[in-house]
Amino acid sequence: MSRSWVVWTTGVVAYVAAVLQRTTFGVSGLDAAERFDVTPTVLSGFVVLQIIVYAGMQIPAGVLLDRVGARTMIAVGAATMAAGQFLLAFTELLPLAFVARVLVGAGDAFTFISVLRLVPQWFAPRRVPVVSQLTGILGQLGQVLSAVPFVAILGATGWQTAYGVVATTGLLVCVLGLAVIRNTPPGTTLTTNPMGVREVGRQLRLVWMRPGTRLGFFTHMGTQFSITTFALMWGVPYLVSAQGLSRQAAGAMLTVSVASAVAAGPILGVLTGRYPMRRSWLVLAIILSNVVVWTVVLARSEPSPLWLLCLLVIVISVGGPGSMIGFDYARTSNPGSSLGTAQGMVNIGGFLATLIVIEVMGVILDRRGGYSFDSFRVAWLSLYPVWALAIVGVLITRNKARKKLADEEGVHVKPLREVVERIRR
């Protein structure tokens, strides 16, 4: 195995561990409600706080990434998440439990964009879209680890042991990252430009004003938030309490989710690399498919059959690898010196939408009396305004990005109908 694949594989292991740390609370939500004796609103507050920290740290993490490199960021992120999980394992005090989720959110923020940063450093440009997709989908194996072995350990040995085990994985990843990961291949160096506060502010404005960055932001928002809300917080309670599945069956659904993402990711990566001027159509198709399948499920006045729930999970799970298209927009619209900052901005989109929806759903469930079928049916309606905003954002920023491309590089994107008509001829 070449050095590039060794470094990348180690980065993916770090990301798998980060997703594991991120999703443990969602699959143990009902246990957490009992352990800390909290209402649905307070329970959702754990994950909302974690995501607020994660989203809020994206830009600082991106700036730091541009300065210190991926190796340090990955190691620090893993150690921070381990500290949070150890704290959550042994505390029964609600304030300390919230502090623990803050640490998990902060460490998580350092990890994904750092692993993504390794890809263009270690691989040829033609391979970057596919390897980036593989990074995202393989990282979701962490969700399988939380849904299956973590849940099994939780049920067999209890809260402290289960969270102690996942905390230990964070420490192991920290050591592994420092030992194996290097920011750049031998013979090359990471170029950094020390900046003061004004320079940082100027760079942030410059990166955000690029239409491609904003297009990536709305892409990430519209594709990712539905499956993230489902996986991080409300999916398992919904499947168990409203749809009548057992906890094991609900965990299996999350495994189906990961398998769907793994299957869809390479396909989207190839299409993204082969048709870079049509990436937005992939994005819009993913968003609209989410809208359709959720509408079918929520229109029912009784629990859905298992096949329909499987279809729901499969369709919304494509949004995970679909959100990687947003990072591809950031990569192709920004120079390497500010790529970490751009990726951080893009990554805010989906998680900002997720935290809003999770909190709104918690409030709705509280006011409607708990985890009933009808309560969830109303709560999930909070998805629709975000989809509307994302679609409008994609359409507007796509036009601006295309105009910029035409003005600066003389590249004109032909309307899709002209391309289709030419193919028919």
From TrEMBL:
One of its GO terms (molecular function) is transmembrane transporter activity. The lineage of its organism: Bacteria, Bacillati, Actinomycetota, Actinomycetes, Mycobacteriales. Pfam families: MFS_1. It is a multi-pass membrane protein. It comes from the Bacteria. Keywords: Cell membrane, Membrane, Transmembrane, Transmembrane helix. GO terms for cellular component: plasma membrane. Coiled coil: none annotated. The chain crosses the membrane at residues 42-65, 72-90, 96-119, 131-156, 162-181, 215-236, 248-269, 281-300, 306-327, 348-365, 377-396. This is MFS transporter. It is found in: Cell membrane. Residues 7-402 form the Major facilitator superfamily (MFS) profile domain. InterPro entries: MFS, MFS_dom, MFS_Efflux_Transporters, MFS_trans_sf.
